[in-house]
Amino acid sequence: MDYDILILGGDIIGCAIAYELSKYNLNIALIEKDYDIADDIALINTEIIYNGIETDDSITSKLEYEGNIMMDKITSKFNIPFKRMGSLMIAKTKEEEIKLDKIYKRAVERGIKDVYLIQGMSVFDIEPKLGENVTKAIYSKNTGVICPYDLALAYGEIAFDNHVNFKLEEEVLEIKKSLKGFNVITNKNKFTCKIVINTIPGENYNIYKDRKDRIVDKNKCKKKRYLKYFLYNKTYNNFYSNMIFNLSDDEDNMYAIPTVSGKTIYGLNTDKDMDNTKLINKASSLLGNLNKDDVNTFYRSSFYCDPIVIDDSCIDTGYIKIKGKHYGIVTMTPAIAQKVCETVVGNLNCKLKKDFIDKRREYYRFKELSNEERQNIIELDNRYGKIICVCEKITEGEIIDAISRPLGARTVEGIKRRTGAAFGKCKGSQCLNKIVSILARETNKKVTEIVKDSKKSKIVPNRIKEFDSM
Ligand SMILES: Cc1cc2nc3c(=O)[nH]c(=O)nc-3n(C[C@H](O)[C@H](O)[C@H](O)COP(=O)(O)OP(=O)(O)OC[C@H]3O[C@@H](n4cnc5c(N)ncnc54)[C@H](O)[C@@H]3O)c2cc1C
């Protein structure tokens, strides 16, 4: 056998499973088709850590609640930004109040703690800046915001340091059952393994399609919905001190949340097509009048709410499939990874490694350091004294570290996500060419070979003159 375990897909769930299983004396590889791990996480650097009250599906709710509880320990161990922050789910009409009452009753039945139903003036004691038309709210103390990309990278980097073999730019084409395990065929290789953990979305391989006892996704989200949101250049405490979710009668649910660095995000979950001007107008009912010139970037994404299923109905043969796409996957990830790990360990005769390193290699966020700390680092490495992204104050040292770390960045997007470069007001017009040059230099490539994120996304398509550098 080439491997004990093959994990298919290297987004946050795949990386978290790789991390949990790398604690054991197993031979593991992860196969990801993109240049980078966690490439499909939304670009904006904040995601909500839910607490399981908002979802209709009880298994998904349980995974969210368990993941939420695990988040403090994991983020402090990995040294990544995570902020516990209260949230208010608000109602303004009788219909919205009825919805809210149902959600609260369900939360109590599910045993979710730190959740309170409040009405009248008590709402304004918690959040004085809310409009007077708010009549009732569910106050959750245990929600939060996190940098999901940092979490995924930390999982991946630690798994890498504990000998998980990451196979990037390799696409899984077929999975076949063999006598003692599986053959996994990719565009580059043919692997054998005992256990397959498939995190690739969809039922895209023939394996076990006909097996009658497999769990079928009956409750898949059928209605097409979108998440439209924008990043606003004012700090969140200009508006609120808690996250705000507004359930609306017309099924357009709005929210206002801070990024981990304190900026403001407005989001709308809707089934309607809506242009950006309408979106800003809609946001004014939650955030007051907004100036469109202060909007940093608009984003649009599909909104997924399939129930999440860890399908281990074929574990007797060694196959586990994670099913469903959901808006709260980041929250659920620690719980999903732990459950998958328990199932695998229960099925293989494996032991904990004695030399497991449960620590992410250190890195510096230059703009968050004191002048004295900066001076000390520059004395050790003067590349930390050269600012590349002026808006976000990102240094050459940080960019080089992002490239040379375990599973280092190979694309411009990878640098942006790891360091925060090019996310400022000028959106990279001052620094993108410098980032491309550094990437080319550090990876021994030509600038014309550097891509944004995928093979077809070259930044510099061709040379017009035979210069050696840009
Ligand atoms: C706009 C938006 C906002 C979100 N907000 C939140 C939030 O506030 N809170 C929260 O908890 N979560 C949130 N999420 C959810 C979360 O970020 C994503 O669902 C999560 O990143 C998906 O992770 P996954 O492991 O399920 O990977 P998936 O995206 O399902 O992908 C699996 C991986 O498999 C790879 N792959 C696919 N096909 C192949 C193949 N043939 N061979 C090899 N590899 C392959 C893909 O490249 C990918 O890396 C949000 C998502 C979006 C889009």
Report what the structure shows.
By secondary structure, this protein is an alpha+beta fold. The protein has helices at residues 12-21, 58-78, 94-109, 121-126, 148-161, 276-287, 329-347, 371-380, 396-404, 412-419, 432-443; strands at residues 3-8, 28-31, 47-49, 82-84, 87-91, 115-119, 136-140, 144-146, 165-167, 172-177, 182-186, 190-198, 225-235, 243-246, 253-258, 263-270, 295-303, 309-314, 319-323, 387-389, 394-395. The radius of gyration is 23 Å and the shape is globular. The mean pLDDT is 91. Flavin-adenine dinucleotide (FAD) binds at residues 8-14, 31-34, 39-42, 47-48, 148, 171-172, 199-201, 227, 301, 325, 327-331. Flavin-adenine dinucleotide (FAD) is lined by residues 8-14, 31-34, 39-42, 47-48, 148, 171-172, 199-201, 227, 301, 325, 327-331.
